[in-house]
Amino acid sequence: MNATHLIDAVVRQTTVLIAHLATAAGVRAPLAHVANQVFLDLVAELRNQGVGGKVIADMFGMALRTYHARIQRLSESATDRGRTLWEVVLAFVQEHQVVERTKVLHRFRYDDEALVRGVLNDLVESGMLFRSGRGERTLYRAAGPGDLAAAADPVDADAAFALVAVNRYQPATVEQLAQATLLDPERLARALAHLEQDGRARREPRADGDAWRCDECVIPIGSPVGFEAAVFDHYQAMVTALCTKLRQGRTRSAHRDAVGGSTYGFDVWAGHPLEAEVMGLLAELRERLSSLRERVEACPDRPPPGGPTRTLVYVGQTVLEDEELEARP
Fold it and tell me: How far apart are CA 140 and CA 148, in angstroms?
């Protein structure tokens, strides 16, 4: 397996997905933080797998000293400990509505000036700040609700997102849910309260803190909310299956594999004798899987003390027209 080529290809496809999510329905979502967040998340995951700092630095092609310096800059502001520089600069401008560049630089004088200027540029390019004037008289204004392309997510959408995470990690702690959904504490608390109120999730008091469970996680077809949760759930299931396969050290498939995935392509045309069967395949699979899930949930037997074995099945389908085939990455 050529791991480098595979990683490059996966990153390419992931960036395509992010670009489509960032521009869906005319929205222009801020992306200035993405590269730094990917770096930090990737470092954290490598650490979780037991990889040491020196090896991680080598994997990124950095000197160990450079690696530690970048981690420190991205992890928190030297001026405001515990918060990233990107976060605190944005909050400072939002607090003052309009502020001069010199005041921003003075406020974060303990941080590297070039880094602060870079953060300001990122925030302007992402649409979170507006800039006017030149040189030392440059002014920054925070974007207001009317300036942003998308309004804040409603509670229903956040609740659907949180429900996917509860279902995936149950019994799930608040810390696990926060890490999985990236919702801030207030939004997550409102989402969980909403789920508890309508009975979709329940809180279980434990000695080490509350945990959350749910009996099912269903986002109905045609639901006006939950698009983000559905995308997250599908993508998470696919990534989980791939990671499980890799952890098992198996890079070849077998006919009776319970872990893995398959992709099938069908070339049909209008009037093809199997056109209706191919086009209706996704609906047929949904019906069969929904029926199987209902029968599993209706089973009177209780799981053993160790809990049930979780099985994830992800199904997707798309139809590519001629122009889409030519543009496909």
Answer: 16
What is 26-142's CATH number, 1.10.150, 1.10.3470, 1.20.120, 1.10.10? 1.10.10
Q: Any idea which residue has 């309508």 for tokens?
A: 198
- Give the pLDDT confidence of 124-158 residue by residue, as tens digits: 876 778 898 887 789 998 876 555 444 444 677 78
By C-alpha distance, which of 245, 266, 243, 274 is closest to 317? 266
Full 3-state SS string of the chain: CCHHHHHHHHHHHHHHHHHHHHHHHHCCCCCCCHHHHHHHHHHHHHHHCCCCHHHHHHHCCCCHHHHHHHHHHHHCCCCCCCCCHHHHHHHHHHHHCEEEHHHHHHHCCCCCHHHHHHHHHHHHHCCCEEEECCHHHCEEEECCCCCCCCCCCCHHHHHHHHHHHHHHHCCEEHHHHHHHHCCCHHHHHHHHHHHHHCCCCEEECCCCCCEEECCCCCCCCCCCCCHHHHHHHHHHHHHHHHHHHHHCCCCCCCCCCCCCCCCCCCCCCCCCCCHHHHHCHHHHHHHHHHHHHHHHHHCCCCCCCCCCCCCCCCCCCCCCCHHHHHHCC
pTM (whole model) above 0.70: no
Q: Which residues contact 126 (CB under 8 A, 6 or more apart)?
A: 30, 31, 32
pLDDT digits (tens, 9 = 90+) for 63-111: 888 888 777 666 666 676 667 777 788 889 888 878 999 999 999 888 8
Structure tokens at 61: 């092609």
Does domain 155-259 sit in CATH 1.10.10.10?
yes
Query: Which residue's entry shows tokens 């595979």?
Result: 6
